[in-house]
Amino acid sequence: MRFEISKVLDAIEGRVCTDPSLARAVVDLAEVIRYQDIDGGRPASLLRLGMVIDALARELEEDSVPVYAVVHRALLSDADLTSNERMVVRRWADDGLVEVLDNPGDRMFEVADLLGLPVLTRARADGLRGRYPWLVEQAGRVLAPVPGAGGPVFIAHVGGGHTPVAGERSPAGAKLLSRQWRCPEPGCALFGGGGGGGAFADLARVERSPAGQPPPSLRGGAPTCPRHGARLGDAGPRPRSEVLAVRVGGLIRRRFVLTEDQPAVVGRAPDQSGGIVLGQWLNDEARRWISRSHVQFELRVGEVIVTDVSTNGSGIRPGGSMAEGDRVPLAPRQSRVLAEGDMVELYPGVQIGRPGELPAGAPYTPNSVMAEAPTMAMRLPK
Ligand SMILES: [Zn+2]
After folding, report:
1. Which secondary structure element, helix H or strand E, spans residue 305, and what is its range?
2. Helix ranges (DSSP H) in 71-183
3. pLDDT in tens, 322-374
4. DSSP summary character for residue 103
5. Spacing, Cα 231 to ligand 1 middle (Å)
6. Which residues make up the environment of ion ligand 1, defined by Cβ < 5 Å?
């Protein structure tokens, strides 16, 4: 039982991040874990975060939709959580996967404003409507997770609807995210040189790339570390980045970020660190065809270059066309610029492209982050 819960928490860990290119919604962890009406379980449970993330994935019809979680510092020692859950949250904090704050205040809404993300909360934000007009003007930007038949569902605070909708980054957000920032506080997990520095630094799995830095907080107009309250130093332009998505069987399974420093290898089970592993989504035939390392993506002067590094080769679908005659072979060792709308096809139904340009596939039920223990929440002691 304990072991299975650990596996579920590990799965949830893959769905929390503070990377502005990958996060899809903002939540307050202290709030979400206390939605006792969702499962009738303990006063606080980290598994409820997984349930809310699952609900988000269902609404967006995409697997692996990470959330940006702000976390009140008191949660790291909250007696309503199990010691295992507290340890996991501390690890997330040390790795910079979540944003720990002494006083979260309106930070959840500030992050949503800067990044153009929806907020999943039951909190009324009436007092903030003057500052953040999108709270009223854009349906789907604030939704309350509430109990539903097959897990949580969302209800819009303003207008109708239940689907979270992203907006544009605010002008302040766009400006802040064009630069890299440094916190003067040593070992800052959000604006330091690289992952962690705390008690769990040896477990830090995230080497934070400057392209993945969270948005600073604006206090009195100055970029400030939300964790330490210290004014941030400008460390130069933020490196370019581009987001690509893997689609298998008509459903986006995950997105990944490409930077000029960090190429990405995609395959059945790449050896390279940071490689994108497809194995778990492939049937036997696709597993036999697709090489351990199959294609490599690089970002060079703003262009995405794809190189086939496989045994069997790949194909390009220019402009995303699925017509049989339109597939251009990409032979082993061959490279090509990924033009706008282009899709790389590793095997029929296994494609990589820019997420907004991948044509919609058949409706599909995303894999649950709870998949390793599907009835876990039901079996928790009440
Ligand atoms: Zn800091």
Report:
1. strand 303-308
2. 83-94, 107-115, 134-137, 171-176
3. 888 899 999 999 999 999 999 999 999 999 999 988 766 555 566 666 654 44
4. -
5. 9
6. 183, 185, 188, 225, 227-228
